[in-house]
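Supplementary Methods, section 5.1.

A reviewer requested that the exact input to the structure prediction be made available. We therefore reproduce it here, unchanged from the version used in the analyses.
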Amino acid sequence: MLQSFFRFLSLSLLSLPLAAAPDLGRIKPHEVAYFVQDLQTGEILAQHNADVAMNPASVMKLVTAYAAFHTLGENYRWRTQWTARAPIVGGTLEGNLFWRGSGDPVLDQKDIIALQQQLQQQGIYHIAGNVVLDRSVWNTGGTAEGFDDDENRVFAVPPNPHMLSYKVVWIDAYPTADGSVGLGLNPPLVNVPIQENVQVVNGGSCSSLARTLKANWDGQMLHLQGRLPTACSGQKMYVNMLSAEQFAAESFIGQWREIGGSGPQNVRFGDAPADVRVLAEHYSPPLSEVLRDMNKHSNNLIARTVFLTLGASASGGQTVSNAKKAIRRSLVQSGISDKQLFLENGSGLSRSERISARTLGALLQQTYYSPFRQPFIDSLPQAGVDGTLKKRLRDVPQLYLKTGTLKDVRSLAGYKLPQNSQEHPLSIVIMVNSPQARLYLQDLDKLARSLAGYSHVETKSVYHAPSLLPPVRENARETRQNVHQRRVSVLQHG
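The structure derived from this sequence is encoded cell-by-cell as follows.
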C-alpha cells in the first residue's frame, strides 16, 4: 500500500512543471511558444506550444548558420576571380576581362581596389575590351514575398553574384572655401548625373548628415538637397541605388579611373570561357567571421547569400530548391526533425517561414555538442554587450540570444552559459506571434529572464499547454517590417 502511494506521488510530481508557469505579462498564452533545455543533462525544463510551427523572424538565421557550419565548414571562403584569355600587350589587355561573381556578401570597395591593383601589378593599365559579369554561380536572388514596400531599404536588398558594398554609395558633403558645396562619393560615379541643391549654413549643429540632407535616386539621376551646416563637415551618409550589376559596373569604372586605369569599352553579361587564366582574385573572410556579422546585426543579405551558397551546385534554375534540400539534409543527418520547418530564403525576412520551438531547441542542443560550438556562440548577440541585444537584458550578460523582429513577430533563441561549476548551460527559445507583438518587448525580455532562471533539478517538466494558435497563413502580405535591423553590416564594411 505504501509503495503504491509513493509510486502515485512520483508520477504526480513528474506531471508537474518544474516551477509555476512563468509570467507571460501581456502576452496571451496562444501567442507564444517557448522551450528550455538543460544541455548538460538533456532534460526539458519548460515548454509551451513547443510543437507549433511559428514565424521566427530573424531567429531563422540560426538554421541557416547551422547548415552552413555543418555543410561548408567554419573556414569556408567565397572566391571572386577576374580572368581573361586575351594577351597583355604594352600595358593593354587586348580583350575582355571576366568577373566571375561568387556572391561574396561582404565584398566592398577596398576589395575592388585591391583586385584592380593586382591587374596593374601584371602590367595592365588599359582594358581594350569589355568587363563581362559572369553570373553562373547562381542565377537567382530568391524571394522575400511581402516586402515590396521595402525594396529600396538596405535590409531588403536581395543577394546577387556581384553584390558589392550592399550597393550603397557613401556621400561626403562639405563646405568649400568659396562657400559652395563639395561632394565626395565612394564609389566615384563616372556615368551617373548628380543634381545638387544644397545651401551652406554657417555654424549650427549637426547630429548626422542624413538629418540635414536628403539624397534620392530616381532611377536616372541622384538628387541632393537641403541645408548643410558647417558643423557637418567630415560626416558621411549613404544612399542605396542602382541595380547590383549597375552598381558593380559603376564601381569598377569609377575606381579604375581613380587609380589611373582606362577602359573598358562597356560592362556586359556572359559566361567566362573555359580556357581563361586568372589575373586577380580575392577571398572573403572565413565563414565564421561572416556569420558573426550576420547574427550579431541580423543581416538579411548575408543570410540570403549563405542560403543560396548552400544551393550553388544546382543547375537549371534549381538553386533555391537545392538550398532548401541542403538545409533539411543537414538537420536530418544530425537527428533533428524538419517536419515543422518551412523555408523561403533562410533569413527570416519572410512572411511564410515557420519553425517550432522544439526544432530550434534540438538545433541548439546539437550545436552545443558540435565541433563548431564556439564560433556559433560567438556569432550570437550577447545581452547588454553587442549586436541587437546591446541595449537589452543588460542585467543578464550570460545570455547569448539571436533576436527576431518582424511586424507581428518578436523572438529570442540561444543560450544561457554557466557562470560557475554548479550551473548548467541552457538552451532557450521564445517566439511570439501576435498583432500586438511590437508592444510586448518588455514582456518578452521579462519572460527570457524568467526562463533563464531555471536551474538543474532531477525531475523532468512535461508542462505543455495546448495549442491555441490560429492556422498558419502562408505568404500573408503586410505593409512593412518593423526595422530593428537598421543596424546592418554595411555600416562596418562601407
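The chain has a mean pLDDT of 87. These observations are discussed further in the main text.
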